[in-house]
Description:
Blueprint: H1 7-21, H2 29-55, E1 68-69, H3 71-75, E2 78-79, E3 82-87, E4 90-93, H4 105-111, E5 114-115, H5 117-122, H6 129-135, E6 138-142, E7 149-151, H7 156-171, H8 179-201, H9 208-234, H10 242-255, H11 261-272, E8 278-279, H12 309-316, H13 320-335, E9 337-338, E10 341-342, H14 348-372, H15 377-403, E11 411-412, E12 422-426, H16 427-433, E13 437-438, H17 443-449, H18 455-460, H19 469-482, E14 489-490, H20 493-509
Parallel strand pairs: 1-6, 3-5, 7-12, 8-11, 13-14
Antiparallel strand pairs: 2-3, 3-4, 4-6, 9-10
Amino acid sequence: MGSKPNFMQLLLLCLPVAAVIGLFVPGYSLLFFWAVTAEIAACGLDFFSWLRSSRRKKQKSSALNKKEFTWEEVSEHNSADSAWVSVHGLVYDITNFVQSHPGGKEFILLAAGRDATDAFESYHPFTDKPKRVLAKYEIGKLVTFEHPSFLPDSGFYQECRDAVRSYFERTGKDHKAPFAGLWRMSFIYMAGMAAYTISYVMGHSMPMVVRLAGAIVLGIAQGLPLTHWMHDASHGSIGHTEWWWWTCGRLSLDWISGSSMVAWRNQHVIGHHIYTNVLGSDPDLPVSLEGDPRRLVPAQVWKALYKLQHLYLPPLYGVLSLKSRIQDVLEVFGKHWNGPIRVNPISMQDVLRQFGSKTFWLFYRLAVPYFVLNVPLLALIPLFIVTEFTTGYWLAFNFQVSHISQDVDYFVKKSADGKAHVIDEEWAKLQVKTSVDYSHGSVWNTFFSGALNYQTVHHLFPSVSQYHYPDIAPIILDICKKHSIKYNCLPTFSSAFKAHIDHLYDMGVQGKAVPLKLE
Length: 519
């Protein structure tokens, strides 16, 4: 069988069909037509995929009699047809468990073909049942590693888990309750629709300064749901079923924002959350030691240009939202890589939905204002740019202050011999040491950051809804004090932002090149 068409091939296939349809309908309406058609086609493929999997008989493991595996061998089993994972150095063939996984098919396929140790632990924090289920699928041992592993838990993380579980049992609260996010985001989307109306629908009767103000509000309304229910959906912490995560995540990130949940989960869930601030494994850090416009980690080679990075980088943060919409197509769907993270096979449904959601985003953001509402280009271009830069700044400033700071630690992927190694730290303690909190107790900052001001709690308990973080943070603080672990918490967002800028400055003014240590 030939390989599945990728995003760009699908686009080329659609062009001749679009040309024919364009003879009978306005050209701009093709965007909406293709968006709806792609989603219908993806739903059809979903049905046939479900039908096929429901009829599939349980199969014997393809491991034969081998008991030791390299990470390369495990990585070949990264799909629903053959899914292996490694947890705590043991390899499991979970192919027969993919369809019945309580956490949904997407999460388990995201982890397939990888060392999923820390994802497994952090996404099952309050029960040992998954360990008992997993044990039935053991087939051998992992003898090499693609990315670093961490020291075993000395009791710190288990104590955190027990204490937080006790909090939820005592209060009777649902740690994934979806409604706190739903009612908050309903108001945000109403504000976004009002801003769209002011900027585009009623724009002809409004002064440009008012329309630009509307564009700023629209940018915030586009970005804020991404730090709220999209972020929770990507971690499975809004509702208890995959339906909640799929709907909330793709509605806000793919359809309304024109980006990609597939790309985000590979970057954020599998990459950044597991290997936080580990150079060579965390996609949020520079991929190589040279050539990046950012110098964020001491191991990077110093260049004179970096002396100015505290001045030129913050303004460039505005392009983040536009960059992500291009990078997901070219890198994730095109090359199947997200920085240093391998991207597992992408289904035809996801390719279709990526195509459909991007065409819909272009339809309502550019085609409708220009062709339907008759907004001239001289007005449309600045309105569009202002909205996108607002979203970019909103996301970048919230994310950057949480990990790129004077107050955190940084690690490297490889040892002196160039192989992935065991980092001399426990995973949970590393999460505390690489995260920065700020403005504890501030309802304003918690809402407008999507609770990213409780970053440490989020990294320890990604599967818990963000609306519980203010109550959980004091519990984690007390346990950190007991274990003599510094919990990084600054008083205000401005102090966290200053720590970020100071770090950029410190990394830039270092006049001595750091020797290559990793390659």
